[in-house]
Amino acid sequence: CMTTAARAENGHQLWLRKGKANPVTIVCQGSSPILKNAVKELEAGWLGEPGSKLILSVGRDKRLKGDGFMLDSRGIHASTDKGILYGVYDLLRRQKTGESAKSVVSNPAYEYRLLNHWDNLDGSVERGYAGRSIFWRGDKDLAVTQNDRVLWQEYARACASVGINASVLNNVNASPRILDPEYLKRVKAIADILRPYGIKTFLSVNFSSPVRLGGLKTSDPLDKDVIRWWKVKTEEIYKLIPDFGGFLVKANSEGQPGPQDFGRTHADGANMMADVLKPYRGIVMWRAFVYSSQEKDRARQAYNEFMPLDGAFRDNVIIQVKNGPIDFQPREPFSPLFGAMKKTAVMPELQITQEYLGHSYQLAFLAPMWEECLKSDTYQEGKGSTVARCTDGSIFKYPYTAIAGVANTGLDLNWCGHPFAQANWYAFGRQAWDHTLTSEQIADEWTKLTFYNPDVAYGKSEKHGDWERGFLKPVKEMMLESREAVVNYSMPLGFHHIFSADDHYGPGPWFGPKSVRPDWTSVYYHQADTNGVGFNRTRSGSNAVSQYHEPLASQLNDVQTCPEKYLLWFHHLPWDFKLKSGKTLWDEICFHYDHGIQQVRGFQKTWDLTEPYVDKQRFLQVQNLLMRQTLDAQVWKDGCILYFQQFSRRPVPYDLERPV
Ligand code: GCW
């Protein structure tokens, strides 16, 4: 039993660190469990005038959308109980960070803001780097303990505090057993704890559940018995969880079963489930993460498979599309499906867990990566058709809008492994609520909430200088630079999927054994030879550029106008190709790798100077992790440069400009 202070130091309290609160009188026009939580939070965290009176009122207002809220000097107004809860968290955040709460109207950009947990029922977490699952421990341990309840409640509270309102409790590589009554009992227990924090529960389902769980002969979505099986199962779920959200499905992707196994389409499969869920207002999130060895360019497949089906899906189906066309690389151009599917709802899927961005060993603040994607212009409905506006209902009037983030939570005491990985959970919630926020603002909020200690007299003692100058500013700068640093030392200039095979940590551009499908190797993606390097996706190559709308398609197609950060994503170029800097491609590649290392060394220096401002535990932990990150960046650089040098046959330039 750890003290509150120790748990706080461990980062267990995330951005919700407890402090002393002032007394406050709350008048609340309702007593639902959600409102009760809202009142409890206000009482525990009020930092405004002691003895203030605050009114929490629920009722319609033209300015409000969904679970939005308004703050003013009298209190909080929202049209739903959930809105009040979000208003409370927002108000408390503003009090802690010093942001004005005088007159605020805040509406969520997306209706569903979901975490996807890739948690397996045996308790392991696919691509999880923060310990075992917070939800599952395996078949033999399904009983719900008091510890479980406390943990799920802390989780729900953290999610709600940043506006996350839905959670998919199991891996998209779904075990059919999740629909077994024994497991559903535990799902219900979780749902009951998440509900008072406004969080809806969803499940990932395996398409062949009718066969593998139900004992049927087929899982063909047009088969009557199959449809009946799903109906009965769905009814069973809603009896336990009346506000159940619906299903997330990975079908005909990476070996998962799906409708194509029976000669049916994605639409046939998704619609069957959608019809079954419809009476309960449930939805289907159908993933578009598909690729196969037959397609010569993996980046093209999702578009090719899904575009012909635009308009064929029921209105309670949303196609869930990863931000980029390949797979959660540290940098990808946005998926061309955004804005292109005009008659079908599409939702972005982002990855919070750092599969390709250094697991929980590396400091990489991901808000800039998601901001880059959400604010990218697709041009699909003219200039300003950003990915965000194409998916949030602004441009296309979808009945449901949603955004998902693959979670980075686990049983680690600090939830996410790396102390700074918590910032990515936070950032996802904030951006899902408001995609117009800047990464800078999110970093600012998170750093204040996570590290500022009101009990320390910063600036008034010799040890602690001014906190903003000594800690906030440099740490924020480090965070904002960190993702670009990862790009630089792992996959600069549009390189992609040159990571070590399987675990995706460390360099692996040499991965290309003949026994494996070509699209599972690295050499397929970089295409290096003595003539040059890069994947030709222009009109003279795979023509993936034409999946984008003009003028973007032509801009990407032309090596002179293609942004350099995507150069090798779209172009195969000679090693001596001249870049805008005047350097050759080879020299520029070397420069970027080296610059990445210099950036992480810079982070080490930055962090070392923060020692007076942080508790010892987090200080030492981050310091050690940054040390490892520098060494690993070095391995990345050496590995990649030595590998590519056998093709470029050029020396590593010695006159690398040293920015640090
Ligand atoms: O990023 C890849 C991962 C797989 C994952 C898959 C997917 C859940 O390497 O581990 O499987 O994507 O998104 O389905």
From TrEMBL:
Keywords: Hydrolase, Signal. One of its GO terms (biological process) is xylan catabolic process. Residues 416-655 form the Glycosyl hydrolase family 67 C-terminal domain. Residues 100-415 form the Glycosyl hydrolase family 67 catalytic domain. InterPro entries: A-glucoronidase_C_sf, GH, Glyco_hydro_67_C, Glyco_hydro_67_cat, Hex-like_dom2. GO terms for molecular function: alpha-glucuronidase activity; xylan alpha-1,2-glucuronosidase activity. GO terms for cellular component: extracellular region. This is Alpha-glucuronidase. It comes from Pararcticibacter amylolyticus.
